[in-house]
């Protein structure tokens, strides 16, 4: 079984691989900060297993066998019942004991019957192809709707080619009785169609199982299994993809699954409106010379006048050393309810752009810090070659850069959370902690870009502070 610690140990990477993709943002094995029991102190702690298809098949078959033996039904019927009831064996057995027939009706499934060879007529007309065949050429489910084998086969092939497997039902009008797996496999003989069906039905089984989740990595066949079905961070042991176990998209703590879906939809819908804020250049607020942001840190220093300012709000950086990091907080208009409709629309857009700009900025900062990481390797190589320490002496910088990305990743997802929060004391607390985290992240970023070997103690102290800020925020607001 993989725990979060097990997964992280699998994620150790060479210097050339680090920061290669989002999975490396959580590669913090070597961080020299206080190590504690993650199950008690880490709000993102998550126990899970990475399974192969063969292991998943065995897992599913155990449930099928258990249900089949308990209810004395065919395995194919047990599979349909399990799929329909989200693989809850105890629930199915309980319902069956209460009312067996009602369970089958509610599940829209009935056991398949034998060929209608004992029909009183030796010949029957198929209601689909309107051709007459001998009665042994007909099959039906227990609903009693008879169709010839040829029409059943064509029906199955059409459905499978459309990506349907567990949802295949009887051909009769308004009949919703589902077709068991063995009934389909008995009639579908083309190897490619049969392979498609088995692939689709396996996918449907996994998707309906609350403890299983396909890894979303490209061409990855790993299935993640966990008893804990909450929105926690899962990491694939094979492709290193990091995702939310509950919804399957990029990990998004502290924002919950429903909120991040709303946010991403809104960003997609309003992307053209927000395009104007995505430029990489701004004017220095003091000398007004054009400055390009080429690093992840938001603490900017004008190369012309040496003025230190914040990239986000263009305010004096000295003011950001205060306890409350104001530029991350949106100031609501207290009188907006009494304004005109147009004024309210402008205020709504202003609020959205405030959070979107910060969301987008941290996304860009993460990308820029990958470039910073490459520059860091070059700078360290030069120092080692000139005799200013060994490669091992400088490893702490790579650890710091990895932690920085981990913290900035969390910070990025605090903005959708804040955007949808109701105004009140809880939001004020959240924005306070968000501001503190942001301030410590920018301090860490600034120090990493300028660190020397003599700065190791100071940098590791800053790493410890930043990680504790991140963990505190998640403990207080990670609602899973």
From TrEMBL:
Catalytic activity: [E2 ubiquitin-conjugating enzyme]-S-ubiquitinyl-L-cysteine + [acceptor protein]-L-lysine = [E2 ubiquitin-conjugating enzyme]-L-cysteine + [acceptor protein]-N(6)-ubiquitinyl-L-lysine
Main location: nucleus
Single GO molecular function: ubiquitin protein ligase activity
GO BP: any one term: protein ubiquitination
Catalytic class of the enzyme: transferase
Domain called RING-type: residue spans: 122-331
Start and end residues of each stretch annotated as Disordered: 1-21
Signal peptide range in chain numbering: none
Localization per Swiss-Prot or TrEMBL: Nucleus
Pfam family, one: Ariadne
InterPro entries per UniProt: Ariadne (IPR045840), BRcat_RBR_TRIAD1 (IPR047555), E3_UB_ligase_RBR (IPR031127), IBR_dom (IPR002867), Rcat_RBR_TRIAD1 (IPR047556), TRIAD_supradom (IPR044066), Znf_RING/FYVE/PHD (IPR013083)
E.C. number: 2.3.2.31
UniProtKB keywords: Coiled coil, Metal-binding, Nucleus, Repeat, Transferase, Ubl conjugation pathway, Zinc, Zinc-finger
Protein known as: RBR-type E3 ubiquitin transferase
């Amino acid at each position: 079984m993989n725990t979060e610690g097990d997964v992280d140990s699998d994620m150790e990477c060479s210097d050339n691989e680090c920061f290669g993709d989002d999975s490396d943002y959580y590669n913090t094995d070597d961080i020299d900060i206080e190590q504690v029991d993650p199950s008690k102190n880490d709000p993102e702690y998550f126990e899970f297993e990475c399974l192969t298809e063969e292991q998943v098949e065995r897992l599913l078959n155990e449930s099928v066998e258990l249900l089949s033996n308990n209810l004395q039904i065919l395995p194919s019927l047990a599979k349909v019942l399990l799929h329909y009831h989200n693989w809850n064996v105890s629930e199915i057995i309980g319902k069956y004991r209460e009312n067996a027939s009602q369970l089958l009706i509610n599940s829209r499934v009935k056991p398949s019957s034998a060929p209608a060879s004992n029909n009183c007529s030796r010949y029957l007309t198929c209601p689909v192809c309107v051709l007459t065949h001998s009665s042994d050429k007909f099959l039906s489910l227990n609903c009693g709707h008879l169709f010839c084998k040829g029409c059943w086969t064509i029906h199955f092939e059409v459905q499978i080619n459309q990506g349907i497997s567990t949802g295949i039902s009887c051909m009769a009008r308004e009949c919703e009785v589902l077709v068991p797996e063995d009934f389909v496999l008995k009639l579908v003989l083309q190897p490619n169609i049969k392979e498609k069906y088995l692939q689709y039905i396996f996918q449907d089984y996994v998707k309906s199982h609350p403890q299983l989740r396909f890894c979303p990595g490209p061409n990855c066949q790993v299935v993640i299994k966990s008893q804990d079905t909450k929105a926690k961070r899962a990491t694939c042991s094979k492709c290193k993809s990091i995702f939310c176990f509950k919804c399957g998209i990029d990990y998004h703590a502290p924002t919950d699954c429903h909120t991040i879906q709303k946010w991403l939809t809104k960003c997609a819908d309003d992307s053209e409106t927000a395009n104007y804020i995505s430029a990489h250049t701004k004017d220095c607020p003091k000398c007004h010379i054009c400055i390009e942001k080429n690093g992840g840190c938001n603490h900017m220093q004008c190369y012309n006048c040496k003025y230190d300012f914040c990239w986000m709000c263009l305010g004096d950086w000295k003011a950001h050393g205060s306890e409350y990091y104001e530029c991350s907080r949106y100031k609501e208009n207290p009188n907006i309810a009494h304004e005109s409709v147009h004024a309210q629309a402008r205020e709504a857009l202003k609020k959205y752009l405030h959070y979107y700009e910060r969301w987008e900025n941290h996304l860009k900062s993460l990308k820029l810090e990958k470039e910073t990481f490459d520059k860091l390797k070059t700078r360290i190589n030069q120092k080692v070659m000139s005799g200013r320490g060994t490669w091992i002496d400088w490893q702490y910088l790579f650890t710091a850069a990895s932690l920085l990305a981990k913290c900035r990743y969390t910070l990025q997802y605090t903005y959708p959370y804040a955007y949808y929060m109701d105004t009140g004391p809880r939001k004020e607390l959240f924005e306070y902690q968000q501001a503190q985290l942001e301030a410590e992240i920018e301090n860490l970023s600034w120090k990493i870009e300028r660190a020397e070997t003599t700065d190791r103690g100071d940098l590791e102290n800053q790493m410890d502070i930043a990680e504790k800020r991140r963990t505190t925020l998640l403990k207080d607001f990670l609602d899973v």
